[in-house]
Specification:
It is built from four helices and 26 strands. It has helices at residues 2-22, 99-153, 159-217, 415-442, and strands spanning 27-30, 33-37, 39-55, 58-62, 74-80, 86-87, 92-96, 219-221, 226-227, 229-230, 232-233, 236-237, 243-245, 250-255, 260-267, 279-284, 287-299, 313-320, 332-349, 354-356, 359-366, 369-374, 376-380, 384-389, 396-398, 410-411. The strands form seven sheets. A six-stranded antiparallel beta barrel has the order 3-15-18-17-16-19. α2 (99-153) runs antiparallel to α3 (159-217). Mean pLDDT is 84; it is low at 15-28 and 445-462.
Length: 462
């Protein structure tokens, strides 16, 4: 009984081993050579890139707009409500550091008080000077009256005495005219001096009013209803303690949550594949179970180098076709851009495709032997490549190769087949270019695209 059990177990193990080595799986291991079957069916080319959700439209929440006009070029955010807070128009958003502004206002106030004191002192000095001149004029008028009386009294005196009295009166009249001119000039001088002081006072008063107006803007209010999102910079988000400059006084923003885009950065190696209108499958990392459709709405013409990255990248804007209440700005996204798809082609893993000089070939299994088969390849994705000629769906191709690879015989393609295949490929390229142009032509700003926008063309190789 015991021997029978052992025999049954041995037979089962042998059958299992035979099934494992002889089963028709996609990938088999024959000795040290791994083989796989040719795949027939749809073939899709994708470009994958991570991105970040952004509201397509948003209202910026600004700090003071006129800081430069008062000589303030930067200030700190001292208080800022939490990100994600729902606000109403006119609600408090943030307060900014007024230390520098307060110092400037104190300086101006001191200057105003100084000017006011100077104004009063000049006014008093002018009054005194004018009074002295007027007193001199009054005294001179009295003297002139006395001199006129003296002339009248001396009219019967000798001519010399009469002439002396007249000369004295003439001198007084000249002095009187000079005092009148002096009084006029002194008034003009006083008015000019007072006008200068008054102008300086108005200038400082206007500056104080400007400071007071800007000081009100140091308390930042929401311009309209919405969800508050912190402003993002190269150094991260602007929060309490962050600086805002006179050139960029944005404190936060109120995004429009009804229309989202995903901003992605595509490596310069892949950017030539990405065109406007291409369909994009979008997943939000925070909710991986949810999927969204979108399309490429814009592709940057100039690359840039992001921080901590060596390769150049190009900014690509992906418009979402769908909206969900869970979506929020700044969420990380995974984006799969459908570059192009073929309905029915033959493809193999990239590892199976070989190219030496001008010869493209694969190694396929024929019975128990291996041969090199010339092929004509088309386009590839990250894992597989389309073979336009040289293989059939029944072929078994090698992913690893026999040690005598250089000695294997080569089965060359018929020249007619090669010529016809290359002609088909040219036609396929033209059709793809036309397809891309048609997609780009359908892309309009702020127009949602249908979910199946960007459906593939079809190329079948026999």
């Amino acid at each position: 009984m015991k021997n029978t059990t052992i025999l049954v177990i041995g037979l089962l193990l042998a059958a299992l081993a035979a099934w494992y080595f002889l089963k028709g799986d996609t990938i088999t291991n024959t000795g040290q050579i791994i083989t796989t079957e040719v795949t027939q069916g749809p073939f899709k080319i994708f470009v994958n890139a991570t991105g970040e959700l952004k509201a397509k439209r948003s209202v910026k929440v600004h700090g003071p707009q006129g800081m430069r006009s008062v000589g303030i070029y930067q200030t700190n955010i001292t208080e800022l409500i939490p990100e994600g807070t729902m606000v109403k128009a006119g609600d408090f958003v943030a307060s900014l550091d007024k230390t520098e502004l307060a110092n400037k206002m104190q300086e101006v106030q001191t200057e105003i008080e100084k000017i006011q004191t100077q104004y009063e002192q000049t006014k008093i000095d002018t009054t005194i000077e004018l009074k002295e001149i007027r007193d001199e004029i009054a005294n001179l008028e009295f003297s002139m009256q006395q001199e006129e009386l003296e002339i009248e009294k001396n009219r019967f005196e000798p001519d010399m005495i009469i002439e002396q009295s007249k000369l004295k009166l003439e001198k007084s009249e000249r002095d009187y005219a000079q005092l009148i001119d002096k009084l006029k000039l002194k008034k003009i001088q006083s008015e000019a001096k007072m006008g200068e002081i008054d102008a300086n006072l108005r200038q400082q008063t206007n500056k104080m009013q400007q400071y007071e107006t800007i000081a009100m803007d140091f308390t930042v209010m929401a311009p309209e209803d919405g969800m508050l999102i912190y402003e993002r910079t190269w150094n991260g988000k602007k929060g309490p303690g962050s600086q805002i400059s006179a050139w960029d006084p944005v404190v936060a923003e109120l995004p429009d949550l009804s229309d989202f885009i995903s901003v992605i950065y595509v490596n310069e190696v892949d950017i030539s594949k990405v065109k406007k209108g291409q369909t994009v499958d979008i997943k939000v990392d925070a909710f991986p179970e949810k999927g969204f459709k979108g399309y490429v709405s814009d592709v940057a013409n100039i690359g840039q180098q992001l921080r901590n990255q060596d390769a150049k990248v190009f900014e690509v804007t992906v418009q979402l076709n769908e909206i969900d209440s869970v979506l929020r700005p700044a969420m990380t996204t995974s984006n799969e851009v459908l570059v192009y798809s073929y309905d029915d082609v033959l493809s193999i893993p990239l590892e199976a495709y070989q190219k030496s000089d001008s010869l493209e070939y694969i190694v396929k299994k024929v019975g128990k032997n291996y041969v090199r088969q010339e092929v004509i390849a088309h386009v590839a994705n990250d894992d597989e490549i389309i073979i336009a000629a040289g293989i059939s769906p029944e072929d078994i191709v090698c992913l690893t190769f026999p040690p005598n690879l250089p000695e294997l015989s080569i089965e060359m393609l018929d020249e007619v087949v090669k010529r016809e295949t290359r002609e088909k490929l040219k036609i396929a390229v033209v059709e793809r270019q036309k397809h891309e142009r048609d997609l780009a032509a359908k892309v309009k700003d702020d127009v949602r695209q249908r979910e199946n926008f960007g459906s593939s063309g079809m190329i079948i190789f026999n």
